Structure formats: structure tokens, C-alpha cells
Fold these 2 entries.
Entry 1:
Amino acid sequence: MRFWATCLSALALGRAAFAVSNNLTTDVTWDPFSLSILGQRIFLHSGEFHPWRLPSRSLWKDIMQKAAAGGLNGVSLYAHLGLMNPAPGVLDFDGLRSMEDAILEAQAAGLWVTARIGPYVNGETTGGGLPGWMMSLNATLRTNDATYTQAWTPYWTAMAKILAKHQITAGGPVILVQVENEFDNVRTTPATYMVLLEQSLRSNGVVVPTTHNNKGLRDITYAAGTGAVDIWGIDSYPGNGCASSWSAVVTNYNDFKNTSGNPTLPLYSPEFVGGWFDPWGSTGNYAACRAKIGPEFERVFYEALWAQNAKMINFYMYYGGTNWGGLAAPVVYTSYDYGAAIPENRVIGDKFNELKLLGLFIRSARDFRQTSFAPEVTTLTSSADVTTAEMRNAQTGATFYLLRHTTSQSTATVSTTLKITTKDGAFTIPQTSGSQITLLGHDSRAIVADYQFGATRVLYSTAAVLLGTTIDGVDWLVVHGYPQADAGYEVVFAGVTGRLHDDDSQYYCESPTSSPPFGALLMHDSICQAGLLANFRITAGGRALLSVGSVRLLALDTTVARTFWAPVLPASSGTFKQFAEVGSNATIIVAGPALVRTAAITNKVLALTGDTNRTTTLQVYGGSNLFSSVTWNGAQVSGGLDTIGAWSATLDGPSSAALSFVPPTLAAWKFKDSLPEISTTYNDSRWVTASKTSTFLTMPAYPRDTSALLGEQDYGFFTGNVLFRGHFTSTGKETGVFLGINGGQAFAASAWLNGVYLGSTTSFNSTDSDVKNVTLSFPSGALRSGDNVVTVLKDNMGLNEWSGPSGIKQARGIVGFQVQGGANSTWKIQGNFGGNTNFPDKVRGSLNEGGLFAERAGWHLPGFDDSTWESRTPVQGLTKPGVGFFRTTFDLSVPSGHDVAMSFVFRGGGATRVQLYVNGWQMGKYVANLGPQTVFPVHEGILDYHGKNTVAVSLWAVGNSTTDFAISDLQLKVDAVLRGGVIVQVANPVWSARDVF
Ligand code: IPT
């Protein structure tokens, strides 16, 4: 039973009226408009981040600080059951698997957390987050099956306890917990599985609302107690992904919620397009995707989502990161950059900054949070090519006109006027005769009317609002627009009587008379019209500060606005003092640096932290009485008021040593063969004997010449390369071997008989088959009398995501095998050292290593002694099909105090599969003939920027041509240099001897 937690005191405090709670806590409540936190209505503006996709743990702080600086107030965190629970009874929430640490970093940055803990998450990760061992269970996954229930319970209860400890009622940032993901895939009514998960959360102390991510516009509403979560939402990826063409915005989310869904809930998008993933073998590239799903796309699609009345939005992904080790599902390659706002290498640009503009606006537009849905219409615009929603806050009268092209993918330049209704009457704006509002190509515009902030009401602004805020008792409105757009932007303050006028080509305000000139950056003939109306043209690169009565109006070219920041000034006390709105309404306007991470004022010292990418003019607008000195990253900076009255100083960019830093050339490689297993003398007696004669994996009917089944998950191998050795006793008549091999899309396999190469097979891309059937002939002379061994090396591109209850359980391994000519075969299997139960590397975890001999022996780890190895480079490569392992070390001495983004860049190769190890971490899989990835970002922390580094590559020549035997280059390159960053710890445990077999 829910209750209506209305109370007079809430109303008196301006709190959300008629808020509904889940009856367990009133710290997080909701109504049809929005969520409220501690009685404060908020627009949840959140970004998706998977901490486990950023194994350099220290950098979680970087992402969290960027998210907060980027105008978000929340993060959404998937947890990965498979990583955290690699074997039955083994729970590991340490290091890169620590949900708790990620939550604490979010809290430090002032971000609310939506914990999306599965058990199944999808997310283009192996098994969709479910571990290989669950695939072998006699259970239908994602149902209330007793065996499956038993399987998820230990993880789930442990995770619930972590969340309970860090939920808002306990002083933590966790406000929402998502149960399952896109459960309509496996829809059952009632959803007893959902009920079980929810009950377990509750009995382990989670009281915050539960949520669900509904797959698109599919109805999965359940009656209370039969699987209903407190707040469900709709995921949606409109716009046509990374393809260069745009498809239309979606305009029926709100209808869906109100007709098929639940009209008492706010409209929630737990995943809204923040980019898209890219498959093996594509021609795509994430930089192009980031440009397509870029600033214009964000403006059009995100404002269209606002127009649908969404007040809870999470962008998937905000930082995608890296599918290092075996994290990827077969649908993606190593990079999970996703074209997201923060690129994989963490170097932010226009996409991030445009979302910041939207985020800061939505943060400061308090009245937006209680606006009602109004269908988009073309009746308010003079041009039918422009559509607008008119979203009004019935309590305050504030109104938001969201303008876009009627055909949302249009690239036309269209101009229109707009009819608005305000407290002071109806107007057609712009009022200046002949002026129009112009959408430039892919564009949209949020126009405010009766927009209240501080003591000021903006009657309307045709320029986009960046923010309105009160700093030291002065109301500041920051607006922006494109110089090429409107000939005259209009900003009208209600009831302001101060007059603007010009004097000697410099524009002044009458009151206060001491206002400084705003310079020649803005101009308009009629700027000084009749008192109330600021009518101006924005010039390229322009910024202008006007005093209008007691209000400061800062008008900016949008490209200049992107260099603006409004960090939260933490309150002096309170559990949530660093949280925008709920903890602190105070902000300061800072412009210039590539990033402003944090700001605080204590004892009249304004302490700013952030990054610069060049010598930068720092500007602080307003509040100059609040501080008497300024520090940047802890060091005092001297400055003073500039010509337009901003406090200004010069910040150093990166040092010349940092700018000229060049990592050493990778040279002095050592080499050793990594495929001793093909030798007839190789001793596989300690390998696992394939003995299963039945399986709960999905094992297709295939010819098999013995009853043993070779589904590798059944033997504890879920990741990376797996080796199989099939023994048969020859009668001399065998002609070849049939193999049906499943490694997931884009896998490869190679086979040898008694050390003689038989051939290889490759699945070419994500639309190719995940199982390949080959019949390989035995070359004459290869058979021996007695024991013969077929050695098969195959990789596993990750376990399938959900594709029905049997699709996810698809057996990886050798699903069909038959020696042509009669003989029965018996098989031995070897994968990663120790399998999923006894893997030795507890820091890097169960998915870092596969089953190559080099990996089993730990040759990829720093500290291994390769001094007796042959000198040979990966460019010299191999001489025949097989696997070689190459190692080298080098010192790095990166100037400190800088964030230097580096990547490994591969070139060349044919049917060549390379795994890249950096200080023991498997940071990339380069498949030369599939691509598309050639550049592999590796962060500080994995790389030791102030010490010795070990780089290793396994090189698998899958084919028999010389181009398959080698790559043509591998180097470490600098992507970007910033002064700043966060302090990074290195934790790269070194080699110790393994009893390899
Ligand atoms: C949505 C999943 O919920 C998410 O985990 C991820 O896989 C995302 O897709 C794609 O990157 S599912 C939605 C596309 C139907």
C-alpha cells in the first residue's frame, strides 16, 4: 500500500505536494511530475557509468567529478554479477569490483546513485553480466526457478546490504535500485522472479524506491505484489544509432505512460540514447559516432524528451570505458567508448560541454520540474516547420517553450515567431519588428517565459538560458545563442526599470552607474530600447555583461558558453552539502578552463580545481566580495577585475615538458612460442578430461564420435582462449576431422594434427555465425601410429547476452567433432589457469586471462624474467600459423601534475589476432582482418607514469600467409595533454611462479 504523504509543512517549505512514497521511506518520493529527494523536487539528470569498465580505480573520481561538473546530478551504475561472483560461493567486491567505492566516489562528487545490479544487466558484456557457471545450471535463468534463485541469492543479498548501507536513509547517495533489466524479454505474469528479487532487497534493508528499465514502449506493469517496482521507466535509443542519418524523435512516451503505463509516476527514461555501441568488423568509428550523436543531436533529442515530460533521465552511456579482458559480449570489441559524452580516453569536448549547457539549465530551471505535459503543436509558431511544446508550471506560471523542427531530422534553416502567454500578457516574440527565432540546421531551442530565479522574473528570453542564479545577493542570468542565428535575441526582465543605453559606442547601464562597459563583443542597434528589452546580436566568440537594473545579464556565443562552468559551492554543513539543490543552491560562474572540477569558498579563499589544456584566462563572474584570493589546484593565482567586471587571472596550460613528452618507442622485444600444446610430446594429463555426457548448456545436435560433450562452460572456462586436445588411435585410415566450433561471433579457431597445421576458421563479424563447421583434411604423413592428437585453439568472444533462455546458455566449445574414417576421439580441455574457481590473479579478476600457454604461465605479468628468451619483435612475427608471445619493458616519466591520455596503436597484420597486455592487464584485442579498432586507450594506473612498464602481446597467426604472421607496428602514443587530473595510484601485482600444465 502506498500512502499520500501530503503535509502542510511540506507545502509550507515549498516541498512537493501530494508526493507518493513506497511506504518505507519518505526521503525519496515522487508524483506525476518528478522525484523528490528529502522533500526537494529534482530533475534527475544522470549518466551511465560502469566502474568495472575503468580498471584504473583512481579514475572513478575523475569520471564522477566530470559528471557533476557536466551538470549532472546523478550516475547510474550497473554492477556485474559475473565479475563479482565468479564461482558459486565466491563473492568479491574488492578493487575494481567495489560497488561501495564507486558509490563513495559518487557521493564525494555530489551525485545521486541509481544502482542497477541485475542480476542480468545486458550492457554488451559477457553473459549480460551472468557468469558462465550459471549457464551450466539445470535452471531456466531469469525465472523463479529454485536453482536459479539459489544461484543469485548470495550475490544479491550481499549487494543489497552494500546498498542499504549507502542509501539515502543511511546518509548515502543511493536513491534508487533497479531490479533486473528489460524484463519484458522474459515476461511472465505474475513475475514471481521480480517479486523474489524485491523481497530480498527489502529483507536486506533496502528501503529506497525500486525501479525498472522497460524495453522501449512495452508494457510490463504488474499489479502490486506481483512484480511491480515502485517506479518503472522506458529505455529508448531513437535517432538511428551511429549511422550518419538521423531518424525522428519519439513523441509518444508520455501517451504510453499515461495510457498503457502508470500516470501516477513521473516519466522516467532509465536509458536514453547517449551514444551507441559498435560491433566487430564494422566500418564505424566512435569519434564519428560522437559527432553524430553530438551537440546538435543532444539538443534536439534531449529537449524533445523534456517535451515529453521526462523528469528523470539517464544517458546510456555517459562514460563507456573499456571491455578489457573478457568483459565484452560478442557484439562489441574492446572499446566501449560508445560515442559517449566522455570518450574512452576521458578527454572531454563539445559533446560533453553541450550536455553541460543542458544540464546546468535544467538544474537551475527549478520551475521546470513541475511543468505539465502539453502536446507539441505548430499553432504557436508562425512557421509550420517549427513545432513547440508549451510546458507550464501551474503553480508558478513559469513556462517553457521547446522549439524544434516539425520534421525533427530537418537540416533546414527556419525562422519563426512564437506566441507566448505570460503573466504580463500575451506577446509574439521577438517583439522587435522583423526579428525572428532561427533554428540552424539540426537545432532546437528552449525558450523560457516567467522564468523566476532569485528575486528576478525573466518575462522571456529568446536566447537559450544557461543558468539563472543568485550570487552574493545579485541575480545573474547567463544566456547563449549562435551568432548566425537570430538577428536580435531578446531578453526581457519583468518589472526592471533600469535603462540600458549606449555612450560612445560603448554600452552602459544606467543603474548602477558604476557598471563597466561590456566591450565590443556584443552589439545591436536597438539594445537600449524602452527600458525592459535587451535586444542584442551575439557576435562570434562574443561574451558581454550587461547590468539591467539589479540583474546581471551575461550573453554568450554558444561556443563560448561551452567553456563556462557552474560548480556547486558546498554548504558549510549537512550530509549532502555538496549536492546541488538538495544540499546547496550556491554556485559560482567560472569560465575558461577545459574543466572546473570543484569550487569551495572558505575563509574568503575561493579554491578551484580543474584542468587546463592551454594557457587559459580564468574568469569568475560575480561574488567578488565573497573571496579575497583564489587558488587553482591548490596554488594561489593572482588576478583582478577585467574590462567587463569578471575576476580574471591567467592559468598555466600544460608545461612544455608535458607538451613535448613522447613515450619511448616500443623496442627490445623478447619472444617465445606460446603454443607448446601442438607438440605430440605435450603432456596434457593434468588437463580436464571431457567427461560430461549430458549438459544444461544449449548444445545443438551435431555429429560427435564419442558421448563426451565439449561445452567449455561445463568445465569452468568462460573467457578467452581455450585449448582442446582430441586423442584418437589411428588405424591409418583417418582422412580428416570435422569440427563444429562455437566461439561467439567474430571468433576464430585453428587446428593441428600431431603438430601439423590443419587450418583455421573465422567468424567474420557480428552478423556472421557464432559457430563454424569445418572439415579439415589430414595432410599426408601427418598421421602416426598409436596416439594421434588434434589440438584446437579457439577463442571465446564472450558469452551470449540474453537471446531467450536457451540463447544465453549457448555452449561455447567444440559442439561437433568427428574423425573422418572411423576412430573415436577422447578430449582434454584447458582454459584460463585455475578456471573460474582457482584463478590466481585476485586483483585483476577472473576475466583478465585466457587459456593461452603464456597466460597460464603468467608471462603477461610484470616481473616475469624473459632474459633467456629470443630477441624478436611482433613486427618480425612468426614463421608459421601458431601463437607467439612478445614482451618488452620501458620506463615512463610523465611530468607530474598532468593528465596525459595515451593509447597503443596497432597497424598491419592479416588473419592476425593480438591480445595486448599492459602491466598484466589485458587491455585490448586487435583483430587485424576484422577491425575496426586499431587504437587502444590505456589509462594511468594501468600504465605506471613514473616507473617501469611491461607490455606484452600474444600474436596468433590464424592463417597460413605471411601477412598473418606479423603486425607492422605497435606503438604507444599521446592522445592529449592536460594540466590537472586526479591523483592516480598504481596497483599492478607482479608475476609469481605458477605450476603451469
Ligand atoms: C539496452 C540495455 O538495457 C543496455 O544494457 C544496453 O545493452 C543497451 O541496450 C545497448 O547498449 S536494450 C535497448 C537497446 C533495447
Note: The chain is about 15% helix and 30% strand.
Entry 2:
Amino acid sequence: MIAIYPGSFDPITLGHLDIIERSSKLFEKVIVAVLSNPGKKALFSTEQRVAQIQECTQHFPNVEVDSFSGLTVEYAKLRQAGVLLRGLRVLSDFEKELQMAHTNKTLWEEIETVFLATTKEYSFLSSSVVKEIAQFGGSVHHLVTENIAKDLVNYYQLKQ
Ligand code: ADP
């Protein structure tokens, strides 16, 4: 079974990586799919995010990185994937995730959404938290990989 892990990944965090690593043991193939959404302002471009994820997932032989735009279920059909993978951190994630899973089912009955519970150390972690800390010069080394931490430092230095 092929699983798609869709998201913004702006940028990818250790929480995302943990979900990727664990799901790669459950599925034949995991496609990490960066949503390219022109309506949502991202810090890193789609191409940069794909490259960042490729760099830190290259040691997983059954993980592929790609980008897509439009409906996730259409992308899943195109890639012949039967599962959408999402991570659950806190109760507040649940409501919007359940709504999205139900909506996707109405669009394509065959699609199943599988939720993986976060590893508890990462339950507070989101890309937004990382950006907030990095923006004010705080250390994010415990939250993202070394290369992403460098990319964040570069980004905020260039902005100054
Ligand atoms: P989106 O904008 O689609 O929510 P994100 O990049 O924020 O994209 O997240 C992609 C997926 O990863 C979501 O299902 C989200 O709940 C999950 N996720 C994000 N951070 C973590 C974490 N720390 N632990 C587990 N899952 C996470």
C-alpha cells in the first residue's frame, strides 16, 4: 500500500520526520507531498521545501518526496495511493483533521486517512513554533535538523 503524507512542511520539523520514519515501517512506500498553495504565504519556496525534505529523508529507501497543487485526493489517485497519512498532536488537531478526512471520503470513497499519534516529546512542535523562535534568534537545534536550522538562520539574517 502506498501512503501519501501531505502537508506544508514550512519547514519540516523533527515531529514530521518522526512520523515519516514510523510510517515508512508500516507502508510499502511513503510519498511526502509538499502542498504548493499560492494562496498561503510560505517562508520557503515549494522547491526549497522539497529539497530540504529530500536531504533529511534520503536514508529511507521507501520514502519519496514530491510536490502537488490542487486536491489531495486527486494527487493520491494520480499516484495510486490508498492512504493519506496525518499526524495528531493535541485534541485541537483532531477536529479539523476529522473534518478533512470526512471531506476527502466524500470526494473519493476509496481513500483512507490514517492518523499517527505524535511521539509525546514532539506534541508541542509545529513549523510555526520553529519559525517564531528562529525569527527572534533563538536556538532551534532541538526541533529541526542541522541543515534546516542553518536555512532558518540564513533566511532571517538576509531579511534584516
Ligand atoms: P498542514 O499545513 O497541512 O497542517 P503541516 O506541515 O503543518 O501541514 O503538517 C503536516 C502534517 O503533519 C499534519 O497532519 C500535522 O498534524 C502533522 N504534524 C505536524 N507537526 C507534527 C508533530 N510535531 N508530530 C506529529 N505530527 C505532526
Note: The chain is about 45% helix and 20% strand.
